[in-house]
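Predict the structure of Small GTP-binding protein.
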Amino acid sequence: MDTTPIANRTHIAFFGRRNAGKSSLLNAIAGQPVAVTSDVPGTTTDPVHKTMEILPLGPVLLTDTAGLDDTGELGGLRVEKAYEELRRTDLAVLVADAADGVGNFETAFIGELRKRRVPFVVVLNKCDTHAVSTDELDALKAAAAAPTAAVSAKTGEGVPALRELLARTVLPDTEELGLTSGLVGEGQTAVLVTPIDKAAPKGRLILPQQQTIRDILERDAIAVVTKEQELRYTLENLRQKPAAVITDSQAFLKVSADTPADIPLTSFSILFARQKGDLAALTKGVRRIASLKPGERVLIAEGCTHHRQSDDIGKVKIPRWIRRLVGGDVQFDWTSGLDFPRNMEQYAVVVHCGGCMLTRREMQYRIHYAQAHGVDVTNYGMLIAYVQGILERALGPFPAAALAFAKQDPETAS
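Done. Here is the predicted structure for Small GTP-binding protein.
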């Protein structure tokens, strides 16, 4: 479970006023001292994360946040960081001191949770010093229209029941497709083309390749892994035609040339774009790149913080391809990890990685935030396929996206 990627874990975050006992409660649920605790309000500054397993949820990420009522300039920054956690939170735990109860502050935050469609539970902590009756808890449940619990992080009272409540409350993301859903079926074979990436630690495949292999195996299908130089030989020696060839985007051109036209072809990056975003909508970003003019600004965003290589895909190759396509100088900014700019209006388009390190909720936030500011978004794999003239083929396995791309008029796209 410890090796489960962060993006595949259920994200449970703890929110509330200072000194409500958020950190102590997280420690009690985790069964170990994850967060620093103190009677001094404002002890927690930056969010604190802990990976663990809670049955029957499986692998989760627990996050402790700063008090939402923090004050001053520094306190305001802490509150901002806490609110940023909502972008990737699958379940929010709103913690209040049982002696204070749920007041206007908590009610306002509940409104924010509903606005963002984040499932939540309300927990009255410190019930060892202020008893909470069943009637009080029922009244709170009715007022909040959400599950509630009374616990003591100090004594452990109610903590096991709260763990079970969290597991029951998390909503499964029924919208999230499997990576190869509709592409590879039971008993079928998929050929994965995986160049040995210099950015990957020695002896390992990079995360998108690992996750795709796992998805194929979970479908009771067969994954055949090869490098781009051996693809033609691999295909010739398969007894049956594969259901699909899935490649690293940087090998697209050679793989397309070596893959017969009657075999569906796409990339790992496009699979992730479909799983975590809106593939049809992302085709607009490709068209926007085609209409870029010299001097416009492009944001290149990555969800991880890998070590940059001399010919890095995001830092070097994509800017080179875009400048060549535009025929003039284009300005670029880069973000990585959890950073994502608010001043989106300065950009003409966003080119995002596949997002294998990001949750679907976080990726959806980024796409919708950019679009709300009039900025289209596209994906590494889609851009690479476009500049190499094979995007229509790469989108072929996904008819809705292929149709959306074909319908767009390059002369009027913006």
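The chain has three domains: 6-169, 189-270, 278-407.
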